[in-house]
Amino acid sequence: MARVQVYLDPQDVDILDTIAEKVRIKRSQIIRDLTKTVALRYSQVAQLLTAKKSLKNPLLELGGIEVSKTGRASINVDEIYSQT
C-alpha cells in the first residue's frame, strides 16, 4: 500500500468515525473500501466513453431499415420506387 494524504471535511470525518465505531473497523479501511468502489465505477464509465460505437444498429437492421445506396434516399424516393 502507498501512503496518501487526503483532506476531508470535519462532518465527513465524523460520519466515518461513527460508521467505524458501529462496524468496528478502522476509518482508514472504510476510506480504502470507498476509494476502491468509486474507482471501479469510474473505470466502467471511462470504458463506456472510450468504447467504439458500432456503425450498424441491430434494431434498424431487424426492422429492414438500412442506409440508402445512393446516399440521398429522401431526395429521389420516386426514382427508387419506379425502378422496382
Structure description:
The chain is mainly alpha-helical and 84 residues long. It has one domain (10-82). Helices cover 58% and strands 0% of the residues. It has 4 helices and no strands. The longest helix has 24 residues, at 27-50. The protein is rod-shaped and about 80 Å long. 0% of the residues are buried. The mean pLDDT is 81.
Map the helices and strands.
Elements: H1 10-23, H2 27-50, H3 58-62, H4 77-82
Protein name: Ribbon-helix-helix protein CopG domain-containing protein
Query: What is the strand tally?
Result: 0
Order of helices and strands: HHHH
Low-confidence runs: none
Q: Radius of gyration, rounded?
A: 28 Å
Give keywords.
single chain, 84 residues, mainly alpha, 4 helices
Please provide a brief summary of the model:
One of its GO terms (biological process) is regulation of DNA-templated transcription. It comes from Candidatus Beckwithbacteria bacterium CG23_combo_of_CG06-09_8_20_14_all_47_9. The chain is an all-alpha fold.
